[in-house]
Amino acid sequence: MTTPDPDILDAIIVGGGPAGLSAALLLARCCKRIVVIDAGKPRNAAAHRLHGFLTRDGTPPDELLRLAREEIAGYGVEVISDAVARCRPGPGHGGPPFPTIFTVETEKGRVFTGRKLLLATGMCDRLPELPGVRECYGNSVHHCPYCDGYEHCGKRLIAFSEEPADAVGLGIALRGWSDQVTVLTHGHVIDDEQRERLRCAGVHAREERVVRLLHDDGRLTAIELESIGPLEADVLFFNAGQDPTSDLAGSLGCTLDENAAVETGDKQQAPTPGLFLAGDVDGDVQFIIVAAAEGATAAVAMNRELQDENLARAAATRGGKP
After folding, report:
1. Are 56 and 74 in contact (CB under 8 A)?
2. C-alpha span between 176 and 279 (Å, rounded)
3. What whole-number distance in Å separates Cα of residue 220 and Cα of residue 235?
4. Residue 220 in contact with residue 133, Cβ under 8 Å?
């Protein structure tokens, strides 16, 4: 059972990554009328391969998206290539004829109205402001060892962060992939407790400021440190923080935590009624396979809300109530 008003969609999905497309697939299979709006700026655009996704390990990210779009197109789902300029609760939000309703306007001027809204807009990583990082990013500079550590087992690994605690934690984690790990803090001091943790883990540390990354066409060869010169290295993993790709959640009344994520409740529900979040933006483990699962979880919850609302409307109509 879909929304009786043809001008009102059952759901609008903002974000066409694994979370949004997974939700679209499930909602389409529930016979719901939906649209997906995607700005075309995936977080993993620099990655050559994605990892940790069962049956798709090693697949190029754009190939996964192509396959997913083909699948949902078979159910008649349209993916709009556009960015969302604003979202707002529509007229009647919280009352008849629908308990929740949202109006979404894109930068190209298209307007959509839907009863439920899923934000799957993701996060974007802050790259260290160091010469050479952008040239190496996605090749020999990475932010997630779970995604890219295996391909660099046994190599000379660098853990970089300007927050000593983050650098130390990352360096110790990288010991699972190599016994040649060095922590760099870019001029920030490591305290005695952190230094002891590194010693016990067999991880080296340098506190000198980083001058630049030395590389051969994106393949890291060394890190030039202030006052001591090059430190040979093969791969750099970093922790420099992240930001939401979109501020739509905040504009709809959601509060971001200290990690710039929005805490969701049961079944990916946001504090705003009718609003759901899935993928990296909700602050859970940030893997593609988890994002896809969260999209499916959100879709089930959205479908159940729609069903319950439709049944209530039908009952009210039969009873002659407004």
Report:
1. no
2. 26
3. 6
4. no
In terms of CATH architecture, what is 127-238? 3-Layer(bba) Sandwich (3.50)
Strands 235-238 and 157-160: parallel
Same fold, 9-124+242-318 and 127-238: yes
Domain ranges of the chain: 9-124+242-318, 127-238
pLDDT in tens, 80-138: 999 999 999 876 555 567 889 999 999 999 999 999 999 999 888 889 999 999 999 99
How close are the terminal C-alpha atoms of the chain, in Å? Answer: 20
Phi, psi (rounded to 5 degrees) for 170: -65, -40
CA–CA distance, 93 with 90 (Å, rounded to integer): 6
Fill in the amino acid letter for 164: P
- CA angle centred on 182, ends 127 and 216, rounded to 5°: 60
Give the number of other CB atoms < 10 A from CB of residue 36: 25
Structure tokens at 291: 């994002």
Band of pLDDT at residue 259, cut at 50, 70 and 90: low
> Which architecture does CATH list for 9-124+242-318?
3-Layer(bba) Sandwich (3.50)
